[in-house]
Amino acid sequence: MPIDESLFRASLVTKGRVTEQPHSVTLRGVKYNDRIYFSRHRPDSDWIKNVIVNSAVVVKYNDFSYSGIAKIVTDENLNQKISQLKYPSEKRAEEKRIAIEITLHEQL
Fold first, then answer.
1. Is residue 45 packed enough to be buried (19+ CB in 10 Å), middle (13-18) or exposed (0-12)?
2. Which of 30, 76, 99, 106 has a beta carbon 3.0–4.6 Å from 39's, enabling a disulfide?
């Protein structure tokens, strides 16, 4: 796994669902069970909407880029676990969130 930290900052690049152009956003990520997770409080962000339309993503981390496939997490227990890992000892760890799970494939 190219990302060793359990909590980190990275850029997530999705393909725009309308423009088909790369859309990059810097997020706090979580590594859990050899998968990468990004989450958000509300499902209205462009990057989540883009993943729903096109699951191919790129994760940029420490000057390296990795291709991957993303999917929406539907398991509420896993969503809660990701929130707890993302916000340790913070009240917002208990808020309901939407998360995506990414399986990384190769360094680009």
1. middle
2. 99
pLDDT, tens digit (0-9, with 9 covering 90-100), for 49-58 = 999 999 999 9
Of 46, 3, 56, the closest CA to residue 28 belongs to 3
Q: Is 98 within 8 Å of 42 (Cβ atoms)?
A: yes
Q: Pick one of 3.10.450.60, 2.30.110.10, 3.40.50.12500, 3.20.20.70 as the CATH number of 7-107.
A: 2.30.110.10
Q: Are 41 and 94 in contact (CB under 8 A)?
A: no
**Sequence letter at residue 28:** R
Domain ranges of the chain: 7-107
**Per-residue pLDDT reduced to its tens digit, 62-93:** 999 999 999 999 999 999 999 999 999 888 88
